[in-house]
Amino acid sequence: MLNAAILINPTSGKGRSAKHAPLAVQRLRSRGVQVTALNGDSAQGSLALAQQAVADGIDALIACGGDGTVHCALQAVAGTDVTLGIIPLGTGDDIARTLDLPRNDVQAAADVIADGRTRQVDYGMVRSSDGVDKAFLAVMSAGFDSEVTERANTMTWPTGTSRYLIATLAELRVFQPAPFQITVDGQTLRSEGMMLAIGNGSSYGGGMYVCPTAIPDDGLLDLTFLTRTSKLTFLRIFPRVFKGSHIHHPSVRTLRGASLHIEAPGQTAYADGERVGPLPVDVDVVPRGLRVFASVS
After folding, report:
1. Which stretch of DSSP H or E encloses residue 286?
2. Going by C-beta distance under 8 Å and a sequence separation of 6 or more, which residues neighbour residue 232?
3. What is the band of 235 on the pLDDT scale with cuts at 50, 70, 90?
4. Stated pTM of the model
5. Which residues neighbour 198 within 8 Å (Cβ) at sequence distance 6 or greater?
């Protein structure tokens, strides 16, 4: 019998996690999975509960919520033999999208876990200049989009994706390109730029394919860098990210590698939508370092 703990974030997806988590637990138990529910009252509290469950010897840690919940669970299982399961109930669910897991179907997501098929995938490790280490599964970013996230996190209205649209428009008025120094597997690029994304997965922000060619088990990270451009040009390029066609614009540079070092003054790194810390950062891939439940092995 699979011995699992399920980490529940009651605020994910505008309360969808709290509403549907009992259904996920019921489905798992009906399929013979031994499940212990973990309900943290904060991000740190949730991480502490998850780490203790891993230390206690569980076989699997299941994240029930959005990308933030998955990111929290990842910190607890990275570097261990514990399998990560995902019941995606967030607003964006880009990690579930990266791993091709069922979304908006709690029972189907629970069945993936109960069926027991797994795959080995890569994850990224980022270390910021203040010594913070974070694992990530989807995208690490810095520059304009991270500043938008910083702004959006301080807003109480509106909610959902519209909050990020308003934050984007507000940040666009004041944002200035930054001088980036990007080193990928020992090769260095220096250029002023608007934003940078490093993808283990292809999307963030609820389906924005910022690194459209990223593959989560190829042992490499994909980098997308928007060089200095006018704000008008930026507004023209930005909508293309929903199809991934922005990478064909001459202002966009793409690189691929296993080890990256990123410098830019005054910029902040985010990973899977969660704050990491100030640049410079070192980013490395951990090839096939994580076992996840998957629809196909």
Report:
1. strand 281-293
2. none
3. confident
4. 0.91
5. 124, 139, 140, 141, 211, 221, 222, 223, 260, 262, 283
